Write the structure tokens for this entry.
Amino acid sequence: MDDLKFENLTPELEALIEEARKDNEMMPGFREKVWRDLAKTAEKMKRRRRLRMFFASVSAAAALFLLFLGISSALPGSAGKPDYTSTVSQGKPVTIELVFNAKSDLEKVKFDIDLDDGVSFYSSNNEIRATKKQTWQGSLKKGENRIPFVVYTKSEGKFSITAQAEYEKFIHRRKILLDAQQKEVAVTMLTLDPIPLN
């Protein structure tokens, strides 16, 4: 009995064990009572441990879910998973294709592209390279319409581009994220929820 070591015992069990240690000639049934009580305590401790592990895993899952929600809400109006992701070597031009779907042929559609500082339009025209915003009127054909444009980054960092088209009583928005690292630029495009036109 002297070399037994138990942790987190009840005060009653500690008293019983201490009594058993002092008395070399235990009364009949005393040893069994001690071990029965120890077995009950061990079972309670196992149950508590299982409950603690269950609540810890539930808490961890809840924390991951909240983290996911926090990341999703960092881009307000995001419609979910990205339209596409790709990578381009750093210093190379990045071609981006905006995709807009129209229910019918449309004229006088207003388009806007806004660049963050750190991103420039890729062009031989100095005036275009110097501007951060392009606005124009154009048309859309019924179905899928692809509008390409080319940009580049000179430095490392995280940049964004906002593009939109106004048609069919909504502003249809796209968010392009550029993560420029030393060797490559990661490109992610998201479709944001449309905003009704007033």
Notes: Strands lie at 84-89, 94-102, 106-115, 119-121, 133-140, 143-153, 157-167, 170-180, 184-191, 195-196. The first strand starts at residue 84 and ends at 89. DSSP finds three helices and ten strands in the chain. Residues 63-78 have pLDDT under 50 and may be disordered.
